[in-house]
Amino acid sequence: MIDAIARAATVLRNGGLVAFPTETVYGLGANALDDAAIVAIYEAKGRPRINPLIVHVPDLEAARTYAVLNRWAETLAGAFWPGPLTLVLNRHRDTRLSKLVSAGLDTVAIRVPNHPVAQSLLRASGLPLAAPSANRSGHLSPTRAEHVRGSLGNRVDMVLDGGTCDVGLESTVVDLSGEEPALLRPGFLDAATLSEVLSTRVIVPDVESDAHAPRSPGRLLRHYAPRARLRLNADEPVGDNEVLLGFGTVENAHLNLSPSGNLAEAAANLFAMLHELDALGVDSIAVSPIPDRGLGEAINDRLRRGAEAR
Ligand code: TXA
Ligand code: MG
Questions:
Q1: pTM for the predicted model, two decimal places
Q2: Closest C-alpha residue for ligand 1 atom 30
């Protein structure tokens, strides 16, 4: 792996694309200082250029060189970095970060991942790495190296295989650049936890109607969709061409996210099981109800977006 990381660092320094594991999902990495490399990410994913990217850095100190960390940012970073949390912050005016990572906004999303391979790659390359999830835009996020190959094929120069991602859902995204902290994407960390640590309200903006919508363009886009239709809150599979993805003690499940009803286990299994069921070629995947609390909010967020996509 040390050899592979050294090669990957060279690929990145030369403007190439390297997929690497993080604790959440696999990222499609490129040098965040290099406009051409960032364009290559958008092209490989087929991602709309209005949807900004997350910049990954090895530690808090590196984060401070690119963005303004206000008091909220220092508190959340201190509590949860390295980890599955992305902070949307004001860019330093003179930063060398490519403008393209921000898709024209004055803010940049920054994350310090907690995965040994991601950490080694960041340190070996000495670069901030822009890295969206390593899948074609709108498709399921990858939690294994083979998912990356399946979705991106040879659009990626190199894939670092670090096994299965532990968390399995993309990072929690919090916008700290406004008047109040705002949860833009639920994840492993939920609004209640963030609010408690910050001792202040964390608003959860409504995608369609509120002032935050233009500032989080990614939320408006089609996302996390398997090829098959998704039918949510289902009790059992119907007809010949539907399978059930279960949760808890249910009968007739083709696969079960967590037979014991454990939400962390369900999150870790979600994308891999959707990939697996999709590969069966069925028309529809029915999914058992998932309790809408804690990590269940993030799971239901991904499922609802996947179901709406058709
Ligand atoms: O767990 C993760 O976050 C993974 C791993 C690889 O780190 N990355 C990931 O990236 O999920 P992506 O590009 O699939 O999702 C980034 C999200 C999008 O919803 C995007 O709109 C939002 O973050 N975002 C990025 N920059 C932003 C900004 N400046 N303002 C508001 N939202 C931003
Ligand atoms: Mg994504």
A1: 0.94
A2: 216
